[in-house]
Design brief:
Blueprint (H helix, E strand, L loop, with lengths): L13 H117 L8 H10 L2 E4 L5 E7 L2 E8 L5 H7 L1 H14 L1 H5 L4 H8 L2
Antiparallel strand pairs: 1-2, 2-3
Helix pairs in contact: 3-4
């Protein structure tokens, strides 16, 4: 039998090995640089994304702060308007109170002036009552005195109007100073004077019925 020679695997030469090692060496730094570049680009992208997110967050926070400031300013304005309204109300109430006090003061002044005038009138009446001979005898009483054959003079007695004399002797002193009679009422109105005369005659019926008495002369001379 012929002998078959077994083919032994070819052993690679050292040159081929060195070439492969060189190619591997030459390839490895390029792949490394590419990887580092991709990592750098990824880190840049991540940084840009972070920066964008930070900017968006800062913008949101700024907008929130601005909104809060606006709301605060609005609240402050509303508070100011409320305080102004409250002040205006207070001023209005104060004005109303001052008006009331002024009206009260004017009323009190009027009442005081009325009281003063009344007191002055009463004082003048008292003075006139205290004075003697202050009453002026009217023509009406003089004509009545002639009919009765009596003389009439202003009274020297305090608080009296007229002194009546008959045959030179004092008979009576009549009429109270400060009170009206027929002549004083007739200056106002005749109807009033007539009504007052009627009422006086009714009141003093007993005194006026006695002849020669002060009541008789008063009703005859003054009424």
């Amino acid at each position: 039998m012929p002998t078959v020679k077994s083919k032994s695997p070819k052993s690679k030469s050292p040159k081929t090995k060195s070439r492969k090692a060189k190619t591997i060496k030459s390839k490895s730094p390029k792949t490394k640089s590419r990887k580092s570049k991709s990592i750098k680009t990824k880190s840049r992208k991540a940084k840009t994304i972070k920066a964008k997110t930070i900017k968006s967050k800062s913008r949101k926070t700024k907008s929130i702060k601005a909104k809060s400031r606006k709301t605060k300013s609005r609240k402050a304005k509303s508070r100011k308007t409320k305080s102004r309204k409250a002040k205006s109300r207070k001023t209005k109430s104060r004005k109303a109170k001052s008006r009331k006090t002024k009206s009260r003061k004017t009323k009190s002044r009027k009442t005081k002036s009325i009281r003063k005038s009344k007191s002055r009138k009463s004082k003048s009446i008292r003075k006139s009552k205290s004075k003697t001979g202050s009453y002026r005898i009217s023509s009406y009483t003089r004509s009545k005195a002639k009919k009765l054959n009596v003389q009439v003079r202003p009274s020297t007695r305090k608080g009296k109007k007229i002194d009546v004399f008959k045959n030179g002797k004092k008979v009576a002193s009549i009429g109270a100073i400060g009170y009206n009679d027929f002549t004083t009422f007739s200056k106002q109105s005749k109807s009033k004077a007539n009504e007052r005369r009627r009422l006086y005659k009714i009141r003093h019926r007993k005194d006026s019925s006695k002849k020669g008495s002060p009541g008789y002369y008063a009703s005859q001379l003054l009424w």
